[in-house]
Amino acid sequence: MNVKDMLRQASDAAKQLITLSDQTIIGILKETAQVLRTHTEEVLAANRQDLERMDPANPKYDRLKLTEERLQGIAADMENVSTLSLIHISEPTRLLS
Prior knowledge:
mainly alpha
């Protein structure tokens, strides 16, 4: 998949996201945070498998390496975002012309 295809997919996903209610978005954020907490070992195992295919000298390696602390931080951040007021955008930013 090339970058243009990925941008098109992101744009399509954004169009779907703007149709969700605030409560649905809040629920998704909270549920995803909970899933990260209850499935930490599975997420870390999958991350280790992904990292095995990378050269540890790659600058992206450390940024992509998950730890239990990083996952807990991500989950906490998702819960924090779920408490913020949501701003609705009538149309996603145009990434593609």
